[in-house]
Amino acid sequence: MMGARVPLTRWQQAAVAVGSAVGAALNPARADLVAALGETTGSYAFHRLLARMKRSPEGQRVLHERPRVTSASVAHAWDLPDGTFGAAYANFMGTRKFSPDDRPPVRFMETDELAYVATRAREVHDFWHVLFNLPTNVMGELALKIVEFQQTALPMCFLSVAGASWRLKPEKRDLLFRHYSPWAISAGHSCSDLICIYYEKYLTEELEEVRRQWKIVPAPPLPERKV
């Protein structure tokens, strides 16, 4: 969501960034701290995302119309037939009891336009989970953060992976860096410019068709354990 913007000096921005980084490292479940870290460290990246959207006809439409991913705006997804992008999204959200209204508001961006870009990046996160077929456990979130870093260059994505990976057990860390990372780097690099997509216009289309259209490579299955 977009909240009231809070103007910060450079020193204040640095202080919020450091405090958010420490707090998020100690408690990764604090979505508000993760969000603040993304905003206070991502100014350059968000400017680049905005520039890319302005160069894309579809991105221009998103910027002009400023769609929001809210419970009301995607409610029809629950009525769409199996196999569609919207039905897959509804199943993803419903089985986890997630609401698109639960995301923390953007507060620390310099302009309203940049605040919208940051909001859009935050709100389409669950669409990306569906498209790349990634779960919402720690491994799935970290793998998606690698994809996101390839797409957005947001420092928060890199910091999240670097900060959380050391907390994993050795076998899980090995799985992340040997199994998921090569796929995530390749998938994030080769797919369409995801920030420029007007996702709401494609919910009625077949999931596999939009994956093909946007060159999405879903996450590989977990390797079988050796007996």
TrEMBL record:
<protein>
    <submittedName>
        <fullName>Uncharacterized protein</fullName>
    </submittedName>
</protein>
